[in-house]
Amino acid sequence: MSVSELLWRFPSAQMAWRNLGRNRLRTALAALGIVIGVVAICSLGMATVALQQQATSQLGSIADEVTVTSGQDSDTDGVTDDQVETIRNLAGDAEVVPQKTNSTEITARNGEEARMSVTGVTNAAALYNLTSGNAPDRLVTGALISNDTAARLGLEVGDPVEYDGQLYRVRGFIEEDGPSFGPPGGGGELVLPESALSDQDHYDSVTVIAEDGDAATEVGNTLDDYFNTDDEEELGINTFGGADQVGGFLDTLSLALLAIGGISLVVASVAILNVMLMSTVERRGEIGVLRAVGVRRGEVLRMILTEAALMGTLGGLVGALGSLAVGMVVFQVITGDPLGALGWSSAQYLAYGFAFAVVASVLSGVYPAWKAANDRPVEALRG
Amino acid sequence: MSDPVIELERVVKRYQSGEEVIEALKGVDFSADLGEMVTIIGPSGSGKSTMLNMIGLLDTPTEGVVRHDGRDVSRFTGDELTEERRSSIGFVFQDFHLLPMLTATENVELPSMWDTAVDRRDRAVDLLERVGLGDRLDHTPKQLSGGQQQRVAIARALINEPNVVLADEPTGNLDQDTGETILEELTRLKEDENVAIVAVTHDDQMLEYTDRTVEIVDGVIQ
Fold first, then answer.
1. Which residue of A has its CA nearest to B114?
2. What is the pTM of this model?
3. Could you tell me if residue B1 is inside a domain?
4. Could you tell me if A285 lies within 8 Å of chain B, comparing CB atoms?
5. Fewest CB within 10 A of the end CB: N or C in chain B?
6. What is the predicted ipTM?
7. Domain, as residue range, for B28
């Protein structure tokens, strides 16, 4: 069954299809305008998604975290138990991990020395990845140590490490390939149960681990509102403004790029408006004949709107397919994974682009269609 | 014979043309019956076309009454006139006015194309066969001669079983012989289909086929 037979049941569509076929070059050029508009808007949208994914993966998980420390105007030298409890209440689902920190010097049996930061934390699992096995979510005995430092000191699992006169057995090695926030000098990190640092009354920092960057920002703002005023900073809230700023920059960038794409689609709709207007002016006599033989105004209107819609659909489809190809190339270049373009966050732009193309085309058809339909048949017949 | 199928009574039509008002029809009386062919003649600018527009329900009069099928249609809205034309008026134009992208059959079906409930395919084919184009059903206008195109147009004018067919210079773009066959066709269909045919022409040949001739000069019937 040919397209035209299928359209037979829809006279307006049938006529529109035939009319578009009369001047294929003009139809193709008008649709090409739409294709370019859709490709512009889709591939720019997809490029920003690729950039966002790339930025997020480079920032790693720290973007999801809020770090709370004692504020400038605090009476205490750290975060108190009460404050930790309040943070837990305010943070909702997010995990709250209080830590005590210190530093120490470790001398190994092989004579090597290392200056290390010491972190006392109970929920080690939330903060650390081990090279083998999992960090305990309740660290009560033993120690975790950075794998590089452990290698340098010749430490193996089960070996003792001394801190503050106490011995702790090494239970695992911390993976260091992620972002490291050890002290300058990169001396590595020693993670002990909280009890090891019990001489400190307060927590040096509290890490809140949220679902994602946006949730982290939200938690940060909530905490800031609760604990701090303009004049007084009870707690220092750090939402890794860097990540936030990168996100903000990308949002601005994606808006700017989408605006450029949007402009090209507007240009394309003006082209369609022009083509539709020209073709209805050219066909004035013919439309007069239609009206004379009893075709209703609404039917002429539908016919011409359908022409515009078909052109938009055609251009939108081709444009979406082209954009998918462009998007995959963009993802390959930026993130190294072309299939990333198929994910909803980027593929949604194909749907938007297509919908935008159809809507813009139909809108461009409204005036020519209205004009043609309301032309008096007597006038129109004179051509 | 019953009441006339189309009737103009003291019809006046004025146009605003720039500053001046042009009176194209100055109180015209006219009527046509079913099965009758009436030819309107007159010099150009005499109001022939305006009169045909009134009879074809393409336009409404400034003053006077237009009756179609006994009903006063002079104050009909554009949409009401469209419905009236759709159901019972056929048009044949000087330059055929077929749609180039449609086949002969589709062109004939055109007036009823939007009525998806009614299948006019059989009647369209039947009409084309009756005007001698049974072997040209799927040809486009480009593949047809002038006379063949005009016969498609005649079939189109009859598709909705009208009671009035308007023919504006139907032989104007055809040579003598072809014009003659078209006129024979019209005469035959007028009787078969029992329609009133109202034609406007300059063609003397047409007067041989017409039942009655009406002359209009300067907006007045002579």
1. A11
2. 0.71
3. no
4. yes
5. N
6. 0.91
7. 6-221
